[in-house]
């Protein structure tokens, strides 16, 4: 297979279903043994681009934004925690948890892409937020995440002072929104087809199998 399957994942760092969706996709890829046949790229999407520096309590935020009661939220969090555990990921929800601004995180993910460590940084940031009760809008937390995956933290953090880097993230977000992406995760295959939401492992396997068959057929016809 000459060309890898290109998988673009439009997501936010503080989106729990994005994490579950990725872990299911990762499981499908691993069970099919096709790690060398896929190439994953993360694309920015901010659930709350206007979130102030101080952030907002998760429970209040979800109640205000979606009208969900505290009981509904607790049930949802328990469900996500269980699903996460089944996929080897720890969701640690707590009463004082805050939703935070993720613009800086997305800028650093663009930097990490250039260095071939985008997925590593993405999952480090996700774990920092959901598993370790850390504020991923704070420079110190971002610095440690960069160091943990072997990136030059000082060089990377300079990107946060760049207007061009900020504009690039906003432009990419606008691109996906203009294509009709309104919810995440949205997972795009070979820039042609897409699935939304944290689909079951079986669904990802079906999509990947079809793409592999298509690639094989194309190679035979060349």
Written overview of the protein:
With 222 residues, the chain is of the alpha+beta class. Helix content is 55%, strand content 12%. It has a single domain (5-221), classed as Glutaredoxin (3-Layer(aba) Sandwich), CATH 3.40.30.10. The protein has a 4-stranded mixed sheet, sandwiched between helices. The protein has a two-stranded antiparallel ribbon with strand order 3-4. The radius of gyration is 18 Å and the shape is globular. The mean pLDDT is 96.
Overall mean pLDDT: 96
Low-confidence stretches: none
Number of domains: 1
Q: Can you summarize the main beta sheet?
A: 4 strands, mixed
Give me the strand/helix succession: EHEEHHEHHHHHEEH
Set down the secondary structure blueprint.
Layout: E1 5-11, H1 16-32, E2 38-44, E3 56-57, H2 58-66, H3 70-86, E4 98-99, H4 103-114, H5 118-130, H6 139-148, H7 153-158, H8 163-178, E5 186-189, E6 193-196, H9 201-221
Parallel strand pairs: 1-2
Antiparallel strand pairs: 1-5, 3-4, 5-6
Sum this structure up briefly.
The protein has 222 residues and is of the alpha+beta class. Helices cover 55% and strands 12% of the residues.
Overview features:
222 residues, alpha+beta, two-stranded antiparallel sheet, 9 helices, 55% helix
């Amino acid at each position: 297979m000459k060309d890898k399957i290109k998988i673009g994942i439009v997501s936010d760092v503080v989106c729990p279903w994005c994490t579950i969706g990725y872990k299911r996709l990762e499981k499908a890829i691993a069970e099919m043994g096709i790690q060398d046949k896929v190439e994953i790229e993360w694309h920015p999407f901010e659930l709350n681009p206007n979130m102030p520096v101080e952030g907002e309590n998760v429970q209040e935020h979800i109640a205000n934004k979606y009208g969900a009661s505290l009981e509904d939220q607790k049930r949802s969090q328990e469900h996500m925690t269980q699903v996460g555990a089944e996929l080897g990921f720890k969701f640690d929800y707590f009463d004082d948890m805050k939703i935070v601004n993720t613009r800086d995180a997305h800028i650093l993910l663009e930097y990490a892409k250039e260095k071939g460590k985008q997925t590593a940084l993405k999952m480090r940031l996700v774990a920092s937020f959901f598993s370790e009760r850390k504020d991923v809008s704070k420079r110190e937390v971002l610095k440690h995440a960069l160091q943990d995956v072997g990136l030059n933290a000082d060089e990377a953090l300079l990107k946060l002072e760049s207007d061009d880097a900020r504009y690039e993230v906003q432009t990419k977000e606008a691109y996906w929104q203009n294509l009709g992406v309104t919810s995440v995760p949205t997972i795009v295959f070979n820039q042609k087809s897409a699935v939304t939401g944290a689909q079951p492992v079986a669904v990802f396997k079906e999509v990947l199998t079809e793409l592999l068959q298509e690639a094989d057929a194309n190679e035979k016809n060349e």
